[in-house]
């Protein structure tokens, strides 16, 4: 594998890694909201879930 191909592969891997981290952050945020003693904030949960699904769609379309 030449240097340019390796760099492209590493960039793709880094992008995927960032998306995975973001998905986990979103899931954690939703879990925190559900454990909120005052009840979850609907708008925040909706926003997190929407972003989560957008990232999942990107993963699905790239496989």
From TrEMBL:
Record bears the keyword Translocase: no
Localization per record: Nucleus
Pfam families for this protein: Med11
Coiled coil feature spans: none
PANTHER family: MEDIATOR OF RNA POLYMERASE II TRANSCRIPTION SUBUNIT 11 (PTHR22890)
Family: Belongs to the Mediator complex subunit 11 family.
Quaternary structure, from the entry: Component of the Mediator complex.
Listed name of the protein: Mediator of RNA polymerase II transcription subunit 11
